[in-house]
Design goal:
By secondary structure, this protein is mostly helical. The chain is built from 11 helices and no strands.
Length: 230
């Protein structure tokens, strides 16, 4: 793949992954600020979201640095694949947070909640960025306004078109597979060349889609059996 297409694809991965995995975070921002006076609510959303994005960038840069340690890319890649498998079964908006009455309280609540909830985002974005610090910062900065102001629309869109969530899970599976293949362990032992990482990414994508499909079929069969018995 030409360098320009690789860059565009990486940016697309980061933005789409961040949008998919930040639905609950965006809802939490709205919930934390709902107790503020109306004239300060927008300011609370913006400041809280900016603080959360800055903290997430810092976390992701640390993770990217740690992924240089042998075998950690394998662990991170498998974690991303697990996140991808779990994604289609999650219910957006299932978490709760208390409304805050002060601007500082709302902003602090948003930053803390986002830090606790963002481990999946951090690993997935680190995988999609392939170690590029500039891509991480750019991708997160680009997707932040979408997450801040379009949470409700994005969630309703994904509920209306579940294929978008499946597509996101497939992208995550691909990124996870490439992250596993990029570990220094394989290169040191001559097992996986850099040109073969895309193949492993495709395998990761296929594994995610197969497991999700099999799980959905099993759950459907179980519910059908329960209905028949009832």
């Amino acid at each position: 793949m030409p360098d320009s297409l690789t860059l565009v694809w990486s940016i697309f991965e980061i933005v789409w992954i961040n949008i998919l995995l930040s639905g609950d975070n965006a809802i939490l921002i709205a919930l934390a600020c709902r107790g503020l006076p109306e004239e300060r609510r927008r300011l609370g959303v913006v400041l809280g979201a900016l603080g959360a994005v800055a903290l997430r960038i810092a976390f992701t840069l640390v993770i990217v640095h740690l992924l240089g340690v042998e075998c950690l890319r394998i662990f991170g890649g498998l974690l991303v694949v697990f996140i991808a498998i779990k994604l289609p079964f999650e219910q957006a908006g299932s978490k709760e947070i208390d409304a805050k009455r002060t601007l500082f309280g709302a902003v602090a609540s948003i930053v803390v909640a986002d830090a606790v909830m963002s481990l999946d985002n951090v690993f997935a974005i680190a995988a999609a960025a392939h170690g590029s610090m500039s891509l991480i910062v750019f991708g997160l900065a680009l997707s932040a306004p979408l997450v801040m102001f379009g949470a409700g629309f994005l969630i309703s869109l994904m509920e209306r078109f579940p294929i978008l969530v499946w597509g996101g899970a497939a992208i995550l599976g691909w990124a996870g597979g490439e992250l596993v293949a990029g570990d220094a362990l394989w290169a040191r032992n001559g097992l996986i060349a850099e040109t073969q990482q895309g193949i492993v990414g495709a395998v990761g994508c296929a594994v995610v889609l197969l497991v999700v499909s099999a799980t959905r079929y099993y759950k459907f069969s179980q519910s059908k059996e329960t209905r028949d018995l009832g």
